[in-house]
Amino acid sequence: MLTLGGNNMYVEEDLIFYDQPLRDQDQIFDFMADELERKKYVTSGFREAIKEREQKFPTGLKLDGMNIAIVHTEAEYAKTEKLVIIKLKNPATFHNIETLEPIDVSLVFGLILSDSEKHLEVLKKLGTLLQNQKIIKDIKNVKSQSELFTIMKHYFN
Predict the structure, then answer these.
(1) Which of 9, 86, 123, 137 is most buried, by CB atoms within 10 Å?
(2) Do the bridges between strand 81-95 and strand 11-20 make them parallel or antiparallel, or are there none, so unpaired?
(3) At what angle do helices 25-38 and 46-56 cross, to 10 degrees?
(4) Where is the PTS EIIA type-2 domain (predicted)?
(5) Domain spans of the chain, in order of start
(6) CATH superfamily label, 11-156
(7) By C-alpha distance, which of 11, 9, 79 is closest to 43?
(8) What is the pTM of this model?
(9) Mean pLDDT in runs of 10 for the chain (157 residues)?
């Protein structure tokens, strides 16, 4: 199991969204910002910062079996350490982190990290997790928000 030290609960059930009918990056980022602002987990600058960062530094990743995006902003916009996970009803277009080509993404991870030291640690854990074919298959096959939460909680809390 991958745990991230300390008593931080990265994965919260109400920050896991399953089968979301969001059509594009703007809708995804607005949805994420709305949820995070409501909980006071991010500053008011988060919404614009995440959109701008994605334009400059695309986050789409082609994985064997599923494409994902791992979006984040600078630590100054975060007030806590959380993971937002959005499994989209239909894929949305992101740009590949390596080739910059458009790819269809089905799963979006939002990293909310106020401690910039943890950024690499969390990305490394996420990378390890996403190289595991069984985990990808499990995530791909979830049928509900609670199933997705159970998988993510197991690896991140």
Answers:
(1) 86
(2) parallel
(3) 150
(4) 9-155
(5) 11-156
(6) Mannitol-specific EII; Chain A (3.40.930.10)
(7) 79
(8) 0.91
(9) 49 93 97 97 96 96 92 93 94 96 96 85 84 89 93 81
